[in-house]
Design a protein that fits this description.
Blueprint lengths: L12 E4 L2 E4 H5 L3 E7 L5 H12 L1 H6 L2 E7 L3 H15 L7 E3 L4 H5 L24 E5 L5 E6 L8 H16 L2 E2 L13 E3 L5 H7 L5 E2 L5 E3 L4
Parallel strand pairs: 3-4, 4-5
Antiparallel strand pairs: 1-2, 3-6, 6-7, 8-9, 9-11, 10-11
Amino acid sequence: MSFQLGDTAPDFEADTTEGKISFHKWLGDSWGVLFSHPKDFTPICTTELGFMAGIKGEFDKRNAKILAVSVDSVEDHTKWAVDIGNTQGTAPNYPIIGDIDLNVAKLYNMLPAGASGDVAKRTPVDNQTVRNVFLIDPDKKVRLILIYPMSVGRNFNEILRTLDALQLTSEFKVGTPANWGVEGASRDVAVSAALSDDDAQKLFPKGIKKLTSYLRMTPDPR
């Protein structure tokens, strides 16, 4: 199946390093970060899982649960976690799905429906498209899809920045401008074009700076 932003994230049941889960039930009323990996014991993914473990507390602060998926067995994930801890300083402290039937990879449109074969014999190149990040809101809607090539490690600070922006814009009628949330950049946000000037003034008592009829800025309303 294929889906777009705003669609309901596909539900599934899967075995993980922390036991069997039903995805929507496991997510509960939290945000979710589902990030995928083509193969265990691969160099770039090793650094990514270790880095994510090191900053898990930042996602906890934002009521966001982390769930990884790799096209290998739970047993292999457990062995890999030892290497991750030894080389990166922090072993995975979140569940990793064992996707040996390729169910999640196919369900989330990361592998073609016809993909098959013994996962132990599938190479990272066979699974190279399993390199996505999905941000999912508490209503189980897909809010972000990022796709990375195997040779490029993911920027998890950008994922945190995007999560902050999504949570802010879900609560207030604003949008975040270019580089919002980047160190040294302004925290001002853009007022929704759907609001009149009068309504904007009422909703944002910190004040409105009107640059054009359609570009109106206000300080971060939180």
